[in-house]
Amino acid sequence: MELSNRMFGCVPLNFLMSPTSICCIATFGHRMSFRHHHRSDSMELYQLRSFAAIVELGQLTRAAERLHVSQPAVSAQLKALEEKLGLALFERMATGMVLTPLGARLLKEAEKVLAAARDMQNVALSFKGELAGKASIGTLSDPNLTRIGEFMNVALARHPLLEMELHQGVTGTALDQVRDGSLDASFYYGELRYPSVVGLPLRRLLFRVVAPAAWADRLRLSGWEQVAAMPWIIPPPISSHHQLAHALLQQYGVSPGRVVEADQEAVIASLVVSGVGIALMREEVAFEKAAAGEVCIWNDEKIETMLWFVTPRHRENDPRHQRLE
Known about the structure:
Radius of gyration: 29 Å
Number of domains: 4
Strand content: 15-25%
Strand order of the largest sheet: 4-3-5-10-6-9
CATH architecture of the largest domain: 3-Layer(aba) Sandwich
Distance between the termini: 54 Å
Helix content: 40-55%
CATH class of the largest domain: Alpha Beta
CATH topology of the largest domain: D-Maltodextrin-Binding Protein, domain 2
Low-confidence stretches: 1-40
Number of helices: 17
């Protein structure tokens, strides 16, 4: 009879091999068989990992590659999980696996369980001074603003077991993804208006009003009404940059006459240099481009905000977040 490690892992080997133990095994074999059956009928973390991987990748083959197991093994794990739950998690289509409505609801619960297991592992590793797992970090369009290269070098050198994913996006989108748990943390600038998010202040940012260099004479004697009537280059409403620009205009009781929408600082700067319109630009970038004769800085108006490293409040004690900060 083959002895399972799961059944006897905590029993001394010399006891298992003794005549007394053999007698016990023979006498209570039926009861032991029943317990083993009960364990195999329970949900396992590896089944939930397979479920999540299939959802993310859409195919059994790709999920198996991600998990470093065979495709039949992933298929068997999914089948066992569906049998345990008593419902179908996927519809099998010619193009791949598609979540059922009930599967989509249970995915959220599976992700919570997997996240809790990772958190437990990370806490245990933190006791030994190690940090492992995966961290999804949001970053902004200008790598110089966040010094993302330096951040990654330091983080990976200190925590070689930590797997990090970078996701570039607009500030408001990144903040929403931190709130809903899609991101573990993110760089962000602007007002922190949600109590569910906490932020570590990194540095103060100043913005200046800039225009094409060729407009310098036009702007020299212009007031806010004339400047507001000119074309403005402003990011979409979800961006903190958009909120800063409109807050400034509202402060003087004006609104932009015509708006050209662009969602990246590099694109905004390029449009200003090309003569398209006026925009807010970070002070260090504005000074650099003004010195090169590419833009002119209008007035002495300065708009101040803060660059943050934000995390969900309920995870502020997570070792991954504490070490990254």
